[in-house]
Amino acid sequence: MNCIIVDDEPLARKAIQKLVHQTENLEVIASFNGAEATKDFLATNAVDLVFLDIQMPGVNGIEFARTIPKSTLVVFTTAYHEFASESYEVDAIDYLIKPVKLERFQKAVEKANTYCKLFRTDHTNSNIENITTDYIFVRSERRIFKIHFSDILYIEGLKDYVIIYLGNQKVITLMNIKTIHELLPKSFFVRVSKSYIINVNNIDSVDNNTVYIGKNEIPIGNIYRDYFFSEFVTRKILSK
């Protein structure tokens, strides 16, 4: 898998390059200090993954990510926590806080590698085959999976695919997140950001910005926050 690095700070670019060199099956093919030069490079080169800073002069990383081709994955690298929720609104697959630790970096790369393999595979026949009162049939990788609603922890949308997380298993199918959300029971499936739908029955805890399901942390988008809390959290809180 190849990658490019986009950051206006030379030391930050060197730090990511060092992490790449410590990671198997990942190669840096270019690095840039801003969006304009990167845009020209992406127009003429196939890039699997972009490590993208957010706060840069001129066009910032969030704005630039909206212009990156669908076939290229984005991992944000930033010193600021407050952009995390917004980053998932532009289909970033991960969000790394500087200084980035090797273990956390490699976890993001592993996720990116999984998605790269997905995009290179023909999934044109993958979709939801049938839906009943408490389960669905989903086509994925030449098989049809029966999935009970109660087993779904959450669903992640990435470009034209959705990933259904079922504890130790995940099922990937060709469908956008809006379409699958319309098919699920609204009584306990709620969309909490552009990229995530959660099963409220499997929530362990929440705070103002995050839903915690087991070891998974799902960001809450700004435009979804009020509805989620008013309909699924506030009215359920026990009071004296």
Automatic annotation (TrEMBL):
<feature type="domain" description="HTH LytTR-type">
    <location>
        <begin position="136"/>
        <end position="207"/>
    </location>
</feature>
<dbReference type="Pfam" id="PF00072">
    <property type="entry name" value="Response_reg"/>
</dbReference>
<feature type="domain" description="Response regulatory">
    <location>
        <begin position="2"/>
        <end position="113"/>
    </location>
</feature>
<dbReference type="GO" id="GO:0003677">
    <property type="term" value="F:DNA binding"/>
</dbReference>
<dbReference type="InterPro" id="IPR007492">
    <property type="entry name" value="LytTR_DNA-bd_dom"/>
</dbReference>
<feature type="modified residue" description="4-aspartylphosphate">
    <location>
        <position position="53"/>
    </location>
</feature>
<dbReference type="InterPro" id="IPR001789">
    <property type="entry name" value="Sig_transdc_resp-reg_receiver"/>
</dbReference>
<dbReference type="Pfam" id="PF04397">
    <property type="entry name" value="LytTR"/>
</dbReference>
<dbReference type="InterPro" id="IPR011006">
    <property type="entry name" value="CheY-like_superfamily"/>
</dbReference>
<dbReference type="InterPro" id="IPR046947">
    <property type="entry name" value="LytR-like"/>
</dbReference>
<keyword id="KW-0597">Phosphoprotein</keyword>
<keyword id="KW-0238">DNA-binding</keyword>
<dbReference type="GO" id="GO:0000156">
    <property type="term" value="F:phosphorelay response regulator activity"/>
</dbReference>
<protein>
    <submittedName>
        <fullName>DNA-binding response regulator</fullName>
    </submittedName>
</protein>
